[in-house]
Design a protein that fits this description.
There is one protein chain. 23% of the residues lie in helices and 26% in strands. The protein is α/β, with parallel strands linked by helices. It folds into 2 domains: 2-160 and 296-350, Alpha-Beta Complex (Quinone Oxidoreductase, Chain A, domain 1); 162-292, NAD(P)-binding Rossmann-like Domain (Rossmann fold, 3-Layer(aba) Sandwich).
């Protein structure tokens, strides 16, 4: 065991603070990673505050991890000391079910092992601890390679925000000649705009905020629609091939389903806490589909990283020190970030 500095909380109503955790020593197939940067995801906040069901405490969040390999197990073949690597939302799975065998570990029938908050089979039932820490030890099969041309701090949110938006765009075969809508211009939505544009689509951003019009254009959107303006909403009604909805608050999903053409699909990647009522005729009159999507498997996540490397796609980030995490959570709740916080983990090492 290695004693490790981390930031976590002991209860839903407790702030995050510096604590000590234990990391296992690398087993034959493990990679030990010195964490340099960790992105801050909405999931971190919801889990730490117990808003998505029971949370195992102490909770050490963080699943957008980039760092350097410091040790490898005797049987590791994919990585060596000094490599720049990433760890996303998954650190293990059963590896035997139909979904694991199809590189869809996120849908593992026995349940994937999340980077934080899952039972840790190596640590006698303790929860896994995430990237708000000095180091992490992960099986090589769940470690990812970061393209050399990407800024490693900005690359961290690709491990969640990047794959969460890339996966549905890839699954529904977005490409040239298609009109694609992106609902919500935040941590996920701004990545969806960049990736869909790089795939060759004509991208239409939908926002409830006048202030986001210029921002959406800067990010690469071909057009921007103010969704609270009924006249503007008629411009693409019945024309879009695909839409990705990144809104986690309550909203009228039917207004966006109406933007789809016959056989169009809308994929929800936001996570509203309450059900979204769907009008049946919005679906059946144009054979539309309303679907959801959950991150991506390890193979697809590496594909996403390589795609972002090829097209030089990175999220817009704001760097913070770990000591600012509680303030960052409060700002995240207000949408006061453009568009992803990234923690400089050197601030933890120096504390």
């Amino acid at each position: 065991m290695t004693n490790t500095k981390a930031f976590g909380n002991a209860a839903a109503d407790a702030p995050l603070k510096q604590i000590n955790i234990n990391r296992r020593n690398p087993t034959p197939h493990d990679v030990e990673i010195d964490i340099l940067y960790c992105g801050v995801c909405h999931s971190d906040l919801h889990t730490a505050r117990g808003e998505w069901g029971p949370t195992a405490y102490p909770c050490v969040p963080g699943h957008e991890i980039v760092g350097k390999v410091t040790r490898v197990g005797d049987h590791v073949k994919k990585f060596k000391v000094g490599d720049t690597v990433g760890v996303g939302c998954i650190v293990d799975s059963c590896r035997e079910c139909q979904y694991c065998q199809s590189d869809l570990e996120q849908f593992c029938e026995k349940g994937m092992t999340g980077t934080y908050g899952s039972p840790d089979k190596h640590m006698q039932g303790l929860p896994t601890y995430g990237g708000y820490s000095e180091r992490i030890v992960v099986d090589e099969n769940y470690v990812l390679r970061i393209p050399e041309n990407l800024d490693i701090a900005a690359a961290a949110p690709l491990l969640c925000a990047g794959i969460t938006t890339y996966s549905p765009l890839r699954h529904w075969k977005v490409g040239p000649g298609q009109k694609v809508g992106v609902v919500g211009i935040g941590g996920l939505g701004h990545m969806a705009i960049k990736i869909a544009k790089a795939m060759g689509a004509y991208v239409v951003a939908f926002t409830t905020s006048d202030s986001k019009f210029t921002e959406a254009k800067r990010l690469g959107a071909d057009d921007v629609i103010l969704s609270k303006d009924e006249t503007q909403m008629q411009k693409y009604a019945g024309q879009l091939h695909f839409m990705i909805d990144a809104v986690s608050a309550q909203h009228d999903i039917n207004a966006y389903l109406g933007q789809l053409r016959v056989d169009g699909s809308l994929a929800l990647v936001g996570a509203p806490s309450e059900p979204l009522p769907v009008a049946a005729f919005k679906l059946i009159m144009a054979r539309r589909s309303f679907a959801g999507s959950l991150i991506g498997g390890i193979l697809e996540t590496q594909e996403m990283l390589d795609f972002c490397g090829k097209h030089e796609i990175l999220p817009d980030i704001e760097m913070i020190n770990i000591q600012q995490i509680n303030e960052a959570y409060d700002r995240l709740m207000k949408g006061d970030v453009k568009y992803r916080f990234v923690i400089d983990m050197a601030s933890l090492k120096k504390s």
